[in-house]
Amino acid sequence: MFKNFTAVWGLIFICGIVFQCSPSHSAAPFATRKAHLLVFYKTAGFYHKSIPAGLAALQKLGQENGFSVDTTNNAALFTQKNLKKYQAVVFLSTTQDVLNPAQQTAFEQYIKAGNGFVGIHAATDTEYQWPWYNQLVGAYFESHPAVQTAIIDVVDKNHPATHFLPHRWQRRDEWYNFKNLQPGLQILATLDEKSYKGGTNGYHPVAWCHAFDGGRAFYTAGGHTNESFQDPLFLRHLLGGIQYVLQK
Predict the structure, then answer these.
(1) Relative to the CA of 154, which of 17, 164, 180, 196 has its CA 20 to 30 Å away?
(2) Per-residue model confidence (pLDDT) at position 248
(3) CB atoms closer than 10 angstroms to residue 45
(4) 149 with 182: CB under 8 angstroms?
């Protein structure tokens, strides 16, 4: 009986070591799991010259972090059948009305199925007549001053898009003022309006995320300039946002 007792506790001890040393499923880096992203960059208004740099940067992030990236400005690909290929969709500086009603419905169903959305820069200058999209992306663009250097206050350091950033992050970009900011957003970073000219929001979120309608969404206001997509911190910020929306 004593031998059996010893054997049982020996087995428990070994199992404890195995479980303690093996990484949990939730601890694994999401961007290293094979995932497929669709980057959408259709514009019906202003066209950002940084879009090609953004496409190249996102493709490189995919190559380096184990996810594939398809790119398109063809809204006809927004069907339920085609969107099933992807775990997340990125709106890269889209502008104005980019999806028709049927495509909007397909995208709503896609998010409700538990998939992810990443909005970059002018993704907030998009679909002003689609209230569901306003809720998804988190705000609408209202205005912006000239491109200039400003200081970002990182207010949430417990997120894959921000945990590595300095508390006061200085960078040059085009800084949007927003309207229709949605309640319940998890604010990750804000702009210090005293650090530049032309801010009108007062409390001025500049990056946020939230769980929405069955899926997850992340938005960052940066990305107007080509240099943004060569900035290691901004690229890591984008990667963290992608990692967040890929979580289930």
Answers:
(1) 180
(2) 74
(3) 12
(4) no
Q: What share of the chain is helix, strand, coil (3-state, %, to 5)?
A: 40, 25, 35
- Which residues have C-beta within 8 Å of that of residue 164, sequence separation ≥ 6? 233, 236, 240
pLDDT, averaged in runs of 10, over the chain (248 residues): 40 36 34 80 98 98 96 98 98 98 98 98 98 98 98 98 98 98 98 98 98 98 98 98 93
How many whole angstroms separate alpha carbon 196 and alpha carbon 152? Answer: 11
Identify whether the C-beta of residue 235 lies closer than 8 Å to the C-beta of residue 57.
yes
Distance CA(204)–CA(195), nearest Å, equals: 12
C-alpha to C-alpha distance for 214 and 32, rounded to whole angstroms: 23
What span, in angstroms and rounded, lies between the C-alpha atoms of 241 and 117?
9
